[in-house]
Batch of 4 targets.
Target 1
Amino acid sequence: MKKRLPASTIKKELNHILEQFHLLENDQLKNAAVVLFGKDTLVHYPQCELRMARFKDTTRHEFLDSDLSHGNLFYLLEEGELFAKRHISVAAKITAESFRRVETPQIPYDVVREALINGLCHRDYSLRGGSVGLAFYSNRIEILSSGGLQSGMTIKQIKKGYSNPRNKRIAFVLHQCGYIEHWGRGIEEMIKGCVTAGLSEPTFENETMEFKVIFPLAEQGVETTKEASFNLPADLSAKQQDIMSALIKQKGNPMKLKELQEFLGNRYPERTLRRELNTLKEKGLIARSGHTNKVVWFVKE
């Protein structure tokens, strides 16, 4: 994505930057500033929350995975992306032309990311008990955000590109940072992405207290990758699932600790990563070989 902020921006005083973003007025921070950049939101802004779940079938009766995150918008977006990539199945086939494996996600990652950004940007943050939800079922993905459409707005209008952001300061910052490309194009991009991928169009449900985007999922028509068919125990923590997902993706290519740490985006300190790897080894899910600085980790068959 293109960034619209000039490089000179980061050299300016913090107060000046916040004023440019319309997040500071009379030396007082706006609520939008906390939603976007707050470091400790749970105490005074419990609504800065993302609920994530993977259900076994088409109902909420049985969980396969769940997580709950509190933090600013950018942190929640990152957590949602990680969860989505963990649970979007990937199909693979060998092409006759190149004899290479071609992998196709069950739904384009960008489509889900766009819906998640929209949910975090346009939800009603005045509802202290509200949140954004990301739910995976066997036949669909749902993204829910607290607060329905603003009074007077309809689903028909937003599908045509009508835009009147509830949180104008938040939308402005996301646009300036390149997370929103064009005003009013989010819904259109979701629909286009699904149709291009050969999926049904997403459906939208608007209620007084909640707005929902539903992405129907089709059955994979080709052989699934080892990552998609690998069943993880239900008692793994979010960190352990993240690590397992990374190792499964690299199956056949054992990874050193530093390599794994970089593959995971340096999200976990070395001590934490080493502890979780040893726990996974004790559970019999992974193994190690080598000595000292040549130790590598890999998924057990």
Target 2
Amino acid sequence: MSLESKPPRAKSAHTAMVVASQKLERTRIVQGLRLHFERVARAQDPYEAISQSLDDRVAFLVVSLEGLARSDAKFIESIRRHCLDLRTLLLVPEGMRPIARAFLNSGADGMLSSPHDDHEFSCVVQAMMRRDGPDALTGLPNRPAGDRAVPIEIARAVREKRSLGFALLDADKFKRINSRWGLTSGDMVLANIARILRQSFRATDLICRWGGEEFMVLLPGLPPDVEEARAAACAKLRSVLAAVAAWIPPLTLKRGGPLRVTLSGGAVIYPGEGTEPMAMFKEANRRLQCAKDQGRNRIVCSETECPRPGRSEPPSLLS
């Protein structure tokens, strides 16, 4: 295939947004982003950007720092409340690197000097999209996006003095689905699980494809009290598991009998049950395995439901 006959680059269906005070700069950035995104929104300032993000979930944000102040950096956090898988690229004029640090601390992912080179801009956008872009099969954020979101949501929970729910969900007996009905049917099942998850959780919750048939869920803004937070998170997760179990796959099956799709899961609450992301992951995964061992199609949300090996109840004072 010659260079002239290369197929056009596939564009993301997700929305990008440009924030720039100067019209000519906005136009140039929009032209560069249209090589990668089907939809590109424009905003003259942070306030307009926040308003637009409420109506259209933004996946990629380009911010020109020309005319902005250090105090404007918080608007990135405001947008991320509605767009948890957001990636942000800063365009930094000469002399504004000290201000850029405030924007990086608020969640921006990278920066380019301004005025920028169009080819370099395109390469950086592509690299950021590859790193934590949406999963091709389900359309959900992928694991790198989830990894990046966990410490961000932990920091927000600390500031707001709220609890954060962290859950791992896994499709039950998924290898059997692939072996009996084929990989195409397995992909269809995963895509529909993702659809149900998107429809069932709040816009402020983050759902990502953690890997294979496993999904990660972050539930921000839960009550400060750990038991209240656990009750709210578990009630929601159980309702989602019920919605998945109620779905009937539209398959014409020639063998293997009817197909029933269920999920099992494990959940923990920050900060009541851990403060480090890796420790939270390990405990949620341990509880997920307990859910599998206890019969599947269930969520395990506490150590009481999944006691650690060798741990016994304290002796009674009446014994």
Target 3
Amino acid sequence: MIQLSELREGMELPELKKTVTQAKINRYAEASRDFNPIHLNEEFARQAGLDGTIAHGMLILAYLSEMMTNAFQQTWLTAGRLNVRFRTPARPGDTIRITGKIRRIEKNEGETTIICELLCANQNDEAVITGEARLKFNDN
């Protein structure tokens, strides 16, 4: 976990890499109860104009949250917020690189707010998810 005293604007967060597989997509469908065939049925996804099945956006977002949890532990879980845009689908076989950088640190009346820019990109450096995270630390 990164300590509050160590945080600096421009600091890179520890990177996370995940490989998307159809098996992971299938498990996520079971857990989320989202059985949309664009995630599970290759033929259906192709008929819908895709190149094959795609991962659930929330599966990739979970990877982003995992990176933030690795960096900020309980503070992220209790005081973190995300604002993201889904840019392009992740597909089976993609390797997703999840990165973040501290863009701004704001101190205000016993509280420190950390604003991070976030990126989930595939192996071709195409943005899958972009956005920002905010989390608050009590200075006490």
Target 4
Amino acid sequence: MITEFKDENRFLSNFSPCTVEYAGLSFRSVEHAFVAAKTEDRGEQAHVQTLTAGQAKRFGRNLNLRPSWDLMKIEVMRGLLEQKFELPEYKKLLIATGSQQIVEGNTWGDTFWGMVFNKDGELGEGNNNLGLILMEIRENLVENNA
């Protein structure tokens, strides 16, 4: 089971460098594009392009969210991750995870995209939507490459 996106599994992180597009703009990571997708403000979207992934994540906490964001965020994430894992180097790495369960374990309390480690270092609560999307993409890649 993969429980953290670091070391040899760092490629699973949305901060990993890759070029993805959203709304006609090009971004340096999935995190950048995802943050830009949260808003309809083209100026804010363009500003995200100038930031590091960490800065983009922080910037995204204060954006004026598009009205339908909660209804579309999973599909936006799926589309951006599909772009990332079409890139040959990332596709190969994701397929190489085999049938391992992928969990975005975290200590910052994200129970929507991941699962939170408890005080004993074990996975606690969380929906793990990011991990579920990654496993779905992996399954599709394996089926299409067979």
